[in-house]
Amino acid sequence: MQKQVTIYDTTLRDGTQGEGINLSLADKIRIAERLDLFGVHYIEGGWPGSNPKDIEFFQHAKSVKLKTAKFAAFGSTRKAGIKVEEDLQVRLLLESETPVVTIYGKTWLLHVTEVLRTTPEENLAMIADTVRFLKSHGREVIYDAEHAFDGFKHSPEYATQCLQAAAQAGADYVVLCDTNGGTLPSQISEIVRFLIPLVPSKLGIHTHDDSGCGVANALAAVQEGALQVQGTINGFGERVGNCNLITVIPNLQLKMGYSLLSAENLRKLRELSLYVDEIANQRHHIRAPFVGTAAFAHKGGTHVNAINKTSISYEHITPELVGNTQRILIGELSGRTNVMLKARELKIDLDEKAPETKVILDQVKVLENKGYEFEAADASFELLIRKALQNKKAFFELVEYHVSFRRKSDHPFDACEATVKIQINGETIYTVSEGDGPVNALDAALRAALVKFYPKIAEIRLTDYKVRILNSNAGTAAKTRVLIESSNGTQTWNTVGVSDNIIDASWLALTDSIEFYLIQDLKY
Q1: Residues 6+ apart with CB under 8 A from 517
Q2: CATH of the domain at 87
Q3: How many structural domains does the chain have?
Q4: Percentage helix, strand, coil, to 5, in the chain?
Q5: The domain containing residue 524 runs over which residues?
Q6: pTM, rounded to two decimals
Q7: Quick one: which of 81, 131, 222, 265 has the most CB atoms within 10 Å?
Q8: Are residues 82 and 143 both part of a single domain?
């Protein structure tokens, strides 16, 4: 029988306390619905006493039909010196009508005396009174023991009394919080091991990543007997963030044998991570464990040669278990196996021992030495392969191009103009176009010259344009690498160009983009 651990997601509350994380009411509802489909057990929606958005969220939450999760409203213990029945924020927690209420209270004497400015005895009463009151109204109560580990280090006896007060009042879970994120895994293990027999309630763990140990600390606590892990999707949260559930979940299920969710749902892990980043308008971390684009990417020749024989030689799990895929990168450290596997990924049949494979590999190393980078430019790499295999059609031949930039003191705008002269099937075409900048003008002129012969290029849109100076110590003579992302609305591809002239580098990337698309059109 598999061991059980519950997952408590606080992305919608604790996660939004992170710098740059802002979620609208609609965002919070959409994320909550996706978390429920994924299979988390608890979704903390917010603090109904803290702001109008959270109050409105819980009003909307009443009509959201969750399949697996339970909504939790978050708040604090009653204030010092007043009856729990008279505490407004405690009443608001009940009015949210969630099946679960999570409250936090103080565990560290420093906070009791210096922040709350009350007595140790009153703090114990605040904890017990609030838990008992919420339980009397039929709620499942989760008690978050704020600063549990710092409090324990300062005064083990008093910290233990705080946890026992919550448990004896009926808390369903007493959650140990490493609120400052400064505790190490060995300390977490030691303290949880000490507390397990002393606290008559299920223990949970809530960690922060200030020391880079958020995930490791959560796993250490579970090993010692904690039965709930609290955290956020992608580690969103205050300061450097909370325990990252996207990393914790597969470690618990695949490495430690805990039962969290179905294998089918676990395969949606990367999808969930990307979805929440997209909603929160965050750039996805390519090196994120398990779900990052680079998590199962292989570049070194010996590594690629080995995984071609058996993938477990350089992969700790099968990528598909978490919704990811293996990727083969091409670069100066590559070997023939890299080229062969990458060609296979691009649906090109290429034998590892063929002389063309060696030609392609040598060409890659020469070009990378000049500043090219094919890891993020699969389309340019495919063109390189096709050229080596002599199955790359010449769609046009460049005769010349010219780009000009004019600024006049009596005009409030700049003028950029490009001319392009090319030959197609012996016919010379000459076009002139203006643009918002020199690259935009050059792109427009090239399209104008080609569209009569290849109408499909009208579908192409340049969606991203990146420039990197490669050897900046060379000053104005430095080489420039241009990466271009293009799309036709359904497909996206990337190309690269390198030159000591930014316009020429842009031209090389632009022409690769168009040639790649025309080849795809011929293939299908």
Answers
A1: 456, 457, 460, 486, 488, 493
A2: 3.20.20.70
A3: 4
A4: 45, 20, 35
A5: 371-395+460-524
A6: 0.74
A7: 131
A8: yes
